Amino acid sequence: MADALVTEAIARFVVGQDPRDPDAIVRRAKVWLRRRQGTTWLVSQALSGVEMALWDAAGKLADRPAYELLGASGEAVPVYASGNFLGQGDPAVHVDHFRPLLDRGVRAVKVRIGARWEEDLATLSGVRAALGPATAIFVDGNEAFTPATALRIAERFAELGVGFFEEPCPRDDRAGLAGLVRSSKVPIAYGEHVFGVAGFRELADDALAGVWQPDAAVCGGMSELRRIAALARERGVTLSPHTAATPLALAANLHAASGAPTLSVLEYSGRLDVFCEAFRGGEAVGTDAVIDGAIRPPRGPGIGVEPLPDIAERYPYRVPPPIVSDPPLYQGSL
Q: How many domains is the chain built from?
């Protein structure tokens, strides 16, 4: 589906065009897509990938890193270590997962809370004790709870010094979510599934999040993340970009987020090193590139990271196994 979107819907606006003006190309594509396939979800992700490729080409043609063309600073970006569901192990298992990045000066981590959230809170308490007060902890709710249950969980999070509660509820209950944001003692974060400046403006207008998490590989591209960062400054919102895909996506987010006015920390997957060898320039975003808890965008022309020609052979697509039972959509309703 994504391939078809690129080759059949988007390519006509790219082939034969001057790649030195990615914004103009993407703008034309959006005008056409808006009334047909739309510009959110899978379309936004496909368009983000094309936009990233255009900035890479533009940078190579200019012999300059993408962050310079985007008007970003090129400064190192603080990162947090992204981890697993709390139910996947005891506190020591989680701390061991974070250890390589903690050893590189990272002082913030994220875990995920699931259906057995009361048991997870006990594990979280152990993680907090092991890491100490100097390390920030964030928690991802994966849209699994009702606003009422999320508020109960947030109260416990406040006692444990959690920095933000990510995606606690589906956003279809706007009134309930706005009430949660008003009442929670812990900041509520959204953005992984929010598309374009318009989507983040809705978050601001409806007061649906105190922390924004745009992803250049999802929200519409690197320029769009820069525009979202400008809106975050205007609205006084903390920016903590999401990234959980590949070394290329991480590099694109580093270029786009570098020096953003309200930037806090950017997500960094603890599993990323496994994939770095499949990307030319991948070492520029590997764990060893993290210094004092931060990482610079690659310095080479363009994005500075690109997949090797055999990446599809290294990581062939596999059809997911069938789902044998549906988990409850709203854990808090049980």
A: 2
